[in-house]
Automatic annotation (TrEMBL):
Top-rank taxon: Bacteria
Segments crossing the lipid bilayer: 6-21
Protein known as: Helix-turn-helix resolvase-like protein
Keywords for this protein: Membrane, Transmembrane, Transmembrane helix
KW Transmembrane helix (keyword) present: yes
Length: 118
């Protein structure tokens, strides 16, 4: 009986010592998640900076060059074109253009432009 208890204590001690040398999987997973989140934040920061640069370029070019009208094609892309036209109309309105100028540049009627602006 004493031999069994001594053997169990020795095994317990060895397992306890081995547990210090094992790699902690939770720490590895936490480190990977932290790296992924840092990469995600870096990429979103870079994308936001690129968006700002592109928006500034569009605004500069928009003031110098008149927008060409975009004609709506029937089919799958009609909703996308509508969204693009709406965004274009809203951007022109924010720039201070009046409805007639927006109508010329976007090839939409005055009623459609008024509806989008509201």
């Amino acid at each position: 009986m004493e031999n069994i208890l001594i053997g169990l204590f020795i095994i317990a001690g060895l397992l306890f010592i081995l547990s210090f040398f094992q790699k902690d999987k939770v720490k590895m997973v936490e480190k990977e998640v932290e790296e992924l989140s840092l990469n995600f934040y870096q990429e979103t920061y870079q994308l936001k900076n690129r968006m700002k640069v592109l928006e500034e370029e569009i605004l500069v070019e928009g003031n110098a060059i008149e927008f060409k009208p975009v004609r709506q094609r029937p089919g799958k892309n009609s909703t996308k074109v509508n969204e693009i036209l709406k965004n274009q109309v809203l951007a022109l309105h924010k720039q201070g253009l009046d409805i007639e100028q927006i109508s010329k540049q976007s090839s939409l009627s005055l009623a459609e432009i008024k509806e989008i602006i509201k």
